[in-house]
Amino acid sequence: MNVPYQDDPDYPKSLDNNDPMGHFRQRFFLKKDSIYMCGNSLGLATKDAEECVLEVMERWKDEGIKIWTVDDNKYYLYSRYLAKLMAPIVGADPDEIAIFGGTTINIHQGISTFYKPTKDKYKILVDDINFPTDRYAVDSQVMLQGYDPKDAVKVVKSKGKFMDEDDIVNAMTEDVALIFLPTVYYRSAQVLDMVKITKAAKERGILIGWDLCHGVGAIEINLKEIDADFAIWCTYKYLNGGPGSSAAIYVNRRHFKRLPGLAGWYGNKIETQFLLRQEFDHQQDANGWQIGTPNVLSMASLEGALKVINEAGVANMRKKSLHITGYLMYLIEKKLSNYGFTIGNLREDSKRGGHVCLEHDEGYRISIAMKKRGIVPDFRDPNVIRVTPTALYTSYEEVYRVVEILLDIVRTESYKEINKNRNYVV
């Protein structure tokens, strides 16, 4: 944050004119008179994704069932193809990655594979501020093993809105069998030290998995260096894979011989898959954790998006993300701090993800007022407007305009015209 930003209206124009990432905006479908600040929840569509989806549609139209065998079985083996594009983004080998399902089903897959409780070692360690689907999955997996979550799920309490990594390490007692945590917190944007926590878990003989959903594509991740047992992530946020696009799982190669907790025919060895035997013949790499037939139309949009990200480079994306979010925080403090706004995320670059947590007691109504003015953020209870200048398609001038519009909203108190009743999706 030690960057000499300026609040001059011409300053963001100069930044945009000298932005080496600026040309990537042309690869996205941007709406006129709209400023998109919600890439932390759903990334914008790329033109590359559209091309890939249309290509699949043409293949389907022309080939029917033969789509599975065109282009050297590309779509039959689509997970393997996409894993090669995903590998440099998360720092893993392609055969340690499988693309399938959705975030929550992949959490179930990971937990059911690695959670093997014993009389003395039966607890799963979690936190109390993670996105709730992770906790729902953990609790249900514990119950499937016959345990009560109140006893078998060990919850590390946060300190306010942040987690203390030492508290997590200190909670790694002998009765803990498995740990499952996020790398970036959805509400506070806090980044956990995955290397430190994973190392501590391994020293204590505890298996550990990570939820990378709010981190992948936003921060640099090296799963080889982290050396966790497994990880899962969605692909529709910073990866821009499309609404509900297929999720991913990482299985450390030291576990390739484990059987998946949830077996399905697409985890069978491809050499024997169509022999259709009644006994599962496990493919001993991450592809063995696939369950059902590839969701090809969903995966096609991801293919196009991953090509853009690999061209840009995650390190370059992270560099711009830190700079442009730093600029946003500078403007918030300069222009909005006298109107009840505070910044709810940590300031250190290493400890914050890709979104800024703008807090205000009237956060919900202000977020709706922003949408009425053409800005697209999202809101998280109790008071957080999540604002995300995304490296690949947000300009500095847009950031400046967002703060100016926010200033007008609170000065005129136009948000007070908005009903306090919540929409289903915020």
TrEMBL record:
Compartments, record wording: Cytoplasm
One GO cellular component term: cytoplasm
Gene Ontology molecular function terms on file: kynureninase activity; pyridoxal phosphate binding
Family: Belongs to the kynureninase family.
Pathway(s) the chain acts in: Amino-acid degradation; L-kynurenine degradation; L-alanine and anthranilate from L-kynurenine: step 1/1; Cofactor biosynthesis; NAD(+) biosynthesis; quinolinate from L-kynurenine: step 2/3
Sequence positions bearing N6-(pyridoxal phosphate)lysine: K237
Positions with a binding annotation for pyridoxal 5'-phosphate: T104, D211, H214, Y236, W265, T293
Protein name in the entry: Kynureninase
Species assigned in the record: Spodoptera litura (Asian cotton leafworm)
PANTHER family assigned: KYNURENINASE
